[in-house]
């Protein structure tokens, strides 16, 4: 049995207690006075044991300090040296300020004294520049000393030197300063700072920039300073490499400070990232700020203190835990491994399983020396000489036989001499090959298998891959193969581990096991009667014939004793009993409602089926209606009578045909001659001709009567048509114009509905009229959609038809269908067909009446009707001739026996000269609102004096009735000689909100004149009233022939990149139409314009799933007409684009974390992602199967993949899916073995760009991070996939917001970029179920300026998904509108809430601080407030939140500034009439986190794109995301393009929230937030050069 185990297990295995050896680990601690405590720890471990050690670091404010200044002495640094010499006193003061125990030294460097670095001419070797020293590589000038006077005195003696090329040999100097500790003077227990000052870049190992590359040997990393401090091997060896410097400076505890000028700042900024702790400062050209730079750098270094373990033996793992967040206190977790590289630690070399490691702060030299060793004890076991168990051929030691010489095998029962060549003992009975052909046969029949990982057994007869499989998996992947059979994991059983011991999969809908009708076998129900049962042995009527059909026969036999189971024995087999009731439950409340006809009595019976309420009852609850429904008595006696009547009718028809040959047809003869054999009916027009004067017309139709003579019984339908302009000859100019067959024109259509007319239908705004109008439109659109190019019907109205007999009370429907001119015959044919059938789709119509295209139709004479009016259109147009003629013709009688008598009627319309002309006196009128009334004069020009009238009416454009004015309408009557009337229009004062506007929108309303009487005519155009130059005036101007705005503009998306527009055609002969369209959020001035000639347009090449806004206007020779109101429409979804760049976080050579960005073009809502990874060869061809992982939660753009093949190249492909389907793949190829491991892993989630609205473009690179850390169970063979997290996030639809959630609407240069983003995080270390889920919102600002109204829109995501039920979400949209230099309107979009919103709260204060002001909005219908007490040119922070009865919801924040010109003498007083604009300072760039150790990280960010002032520095705050611990703040000075900060003393597995805020001359800007968690996954020493690989 096992030799090493827990004490209890060893006793259970049968070992005696006396024979058990117990090994005990130890720990000894030694304390002395030092910067660290303790100083010495001795520990012993058992394999697998781990221990915690408390380490405390004492960081006195003025601890020991060694400061070594290393300065570039090339000629360009001459002024820098002079300044440093003059700063002797200031330098001394600074050093004393930094430490009470200090030393200071000085060194200088130039470059290697060899070509091409140095001019090797003798004269230049003596003095390269005037008044300079000879060239040199490095010299230690002043050894570290505490004598500041001597330091200053020796520094004055130094002179500048020089070289040729720009890069300097500073790396040689740094290395010598590090390794020559005694000669430089570094002390053992002090902080070592090396200030490196230069204005040039650096040479490094094999940099290829000179002929030395590849010629000189590598740097030996040894000290080569002579007695004078000169570096002697500069021409013999190469420069050191960057990793060498990093390693050596870390080894000797030296922290570099790079003080460099702007020429080389970027080089050293990148170099700094390679060091665990380093600082870079921007040096002035003359180094005048070097002391301030050193002071700032030293303070930053003190804030970056972290701890690390050095010289760690291979058998140990270390991990550092911060305790209580206290600075200087750490906990070290030290663990002894059991195995290392698949080798037991007790079998490792002694130096790999024991040793002394140094645990030290990065800024100190002092360390805790931890002497650790692993106990591998051996026991003095019991020994039995010549034991019987060993057949007397060996000793029994610790339970095992130790054989004497010449004897082998487990029990020493095999002689070497007799069995060495005998292989028969290796042959399994029944086989012929030794060791089954899978191994070698050794002495005494011992088989050694070739591949022990695959073959096992005494004869190697068992193959570990040949056990039973289930579902294609060996042992169902729920066990292991051993000795030819599956050894199942806990909870599984069966020959292939296919059976679960749990009965959870056998539970029925009531919670029982197999419904009591079977037993649970292997995780499945084995039912007594499986043919009629579900998988849980419940009655399965649906699987048979359906619930009703499955219960039919049982209901029939139990209730009525009929049917196929009416025999008692069959009926007793039914699995349920019925209940007879007087009334059945409603269908919605039961499982199913059934009815069947009983064949025995032809009656219908009804019953319901539902599941039982009692969970213990296993059968259905069936309730049967006690009373059947039977048909009435038989009507067979009617058959003889019907046969007799049919024979009599046939005889009568035969007589008619025989004796009435004078009639034209059999049908007409019979019906006409039955009463008296008299004459038949005649129909025709009553009048021959009409003479009409156009000036006297009051309608565009003429009702001309058609009469019927003869017997009035029966029905006749007469079809008619009308022809316009019959007076014109074929050569008339108008007749020669060929119309465009593809032109869309209007076809009026009239039908008689099978519905009575009511007074409500005459009122278009009534509910009855609206419902009937919708019903008509739905059915007619369904019928006419088969006409190519046909649009939806419009202008539907209802009326009555006079003189229609019994059907004159039926409703006549008039509507207009727009379709191509060429579709006219198809429309006529389709209309006649549907009218004759009595149905237009599902709309009931009465045959006999219709009108199509105004020039033809049909009327119906009902029984008893002698006269019907024909509704004839007159086609009156301005371009008509002075005298025009129309011809109306009765075409035929398709239904009825009447003949057509008077077939034609002529209509003549004569244009007359007007007797009077009504018009306006002038083209424009201006009135002040303060006047209260606009008096509009209407002039009458008299041609023939007399009385006359005209109608007037106002209507809205941008001015609104009851808001800007009061509408008026009526008739003006002019007496003889009267030439002018005044129409007063009341003007209204501005409201309180509108009164704040100084630059107003255009306000217009229109006055129309119509219906002139007594021969009068109208002058040209209507009158429009619009504002003047100031906001208090309303102008009136005549359009002078400008076209009105088109009506009924409709937009419909026809595809992902197209929208179709339709509108009503304009009267007045427009030359065409202009369609303006733009992306929602863009200014209208940037709209694209499409010119079309017909009242429809197709917008193409649009962006998918994008909101567009549109207007339409007509134009003629005068110019553009008036625009329609704006309409919006969203294009349809399309497949998404490829995901953003892939990023890999390499955990180990077989484990990686792949993440990706959301597609730049989502083209809809992303619903899932698919990841495919395939092993490939160098030719990128697959060498193994591809594996797919589908991630159903689109917010989880990350996948942890384990158990990859070591050193194998993989191709990774990712694609996104929305409701349309899958998009294209984004792929990348990587071999993990070639990448650095990142043991202290920060999971990376690249996200969509964070857009700075004022910058107008996205950042070139971006990485966003979360605290989401994914793990797999130990030994898992399946990849870890982030779970759905239980998100309760609400997605906004297009109807609730113009921008769809999680979508990007982008247009190229010169356009706009509008994005909504969210990054999702899982909180809490170790909570891998994702139940605690939050969402962090990233806000963008988009400034829109339209019609001088400035609006700032904050587009945001729905808020925190952790909210309690009933608490409002964050308001999803925040809008700022500037009303003046000190007034602002703040509005928001109603947040989602499961309960009613009770009100809102608006908080605001100056961004720089001050009193927080509060406005309570108690009316939930109001979603805006006006604030008038703001200061100009000051930034404000606004917060808005909603309230329900469950409490207040989270806040939506926004920062805004109203910029305007102010009085120089009074900065808080804006200049009267000065313009004002909205602006918002931009936040710092995206936050980038880099792990340095388990409890420290480096945070970096980019400079704000528009900082709103000069940047003075930054404020960084750090706090735990879920509370606990103190809020820490850091001050960072400088305004470089990229800034970084090292944050120490963090606690791993705890999510932190970081905020970075720029401090400018104007105050503080907005914050950039980021959330991060450091989780240590591998305790090995961190390589500072490790980086997460990022592939585009």
TrEMBL record:
Localisation: Cell membrane
Primary localisation category: membrane
Region: Disordered, residue numbers: 1272-1303
Sample GO molecular function, one term: integrin binding
Gene3D superfamilies noted in UniProt: 2.60.40.2030, 4.10.1240.30, Immunoglobulins, Laminin, ntegrin, alpha v. Chain A, domain 3, von Willebrand factor, type A domain
Alphabetized SMART domains for the sequence: Calx_beta, FN3, INB, Integrin_B_tail
Any Pfam family hit: Integrin_beta
Biological process, per Gene Ontology: cell adhesion mediated by integrin; cell migration; cell-cell adhesion; cell-matrix adhesion; integrin-mediated signaling pathway
InterPro entries given in the database record: CalX-like_sf, Calx_beta, EGF, FN3_dom, FN3_sf, Ig-like_fold, Integrin_bsu, Integrin_bsu_tail
GO cellular component annotations of the record: cell surface; focal adhesion; integrin complex
UniProt topology in membrane: Single-pass type I membrane protein
Composition-biased stretches (Low complexity): 1293-1303
Listed PROSITE patterns: EGF_1 (PS00022), FN3 (PS50853), I_EGF_1 (PS00243), I_EGF_2 (PS52047)
Entry keywords, A to Z: Calcium, Cell adhesion, Cell membrane, Disulfide bond, EGF-like domain, Glycoprotein, Integrin, Membrane, Repeat, Signal, Transmembrane, Transmembrane helix
Domain named Fibronectin type-III: residues: 1045-1134, 1138-1237, 1370-1463, 1483-1579
Lineage: superkingdom: Eukaryota
PANTHER family, sorted: INTEGRIN BETA SUBUNIT, INTEGRIN BETA-4
Family: Belongs to the integrin beta chain family.
Name of protein: Integrin beta
Organism name: Sander lucioperca (Pike-perch)
Taxonomic lineage of the native organism: Eukaryota, Metazoa, Chordata, Craniata, Vertebrata
Gene name in the database record: itgb4
